[in-house]
Amino acid sequence: MASEDEERLVRDLFRDYNKLIRPVEVMNKTVEVQFGLSFIQLINVVSSIDSLLRNTPAPGVTEAGHSVPE
């Protein structure tokens, strides 16, 4: 669930967004998109899978499956 601040940020960022406009000078040029993933997310997934295999909660998660605030 997104917080109120996150929702306001997304709303502000996309207020005048037009999906038909391409960020290129020449319309037939390709748009290069790059993205990345932080290792901490991968480590959390591995930890969760390991916990599922051991049938124990992952660190920072209660037995009911709720996240514990840091």
Automatic annotation (TrEMBL):
Signal peptide: none annotated. GO terms for cellular component: membrane. Pfam families: Neur_chan_LBD (PF02931). It comes from the Eukaryota. GO terms for molecular function: extracellular ligand-gated monoatomic ion channel activity. Coiled coil: none annotated. Residues 6-46 form the Neurotransmitter-gated ion-channel ligand-binding domain. Gene3D superfamilies: Neurotransmitter-gated ion-channel ligand-binding domain. This is Neurotransmitter-gated ion-channel ligand-binding domain-containing protein. It comes from Araneus ventricosus.
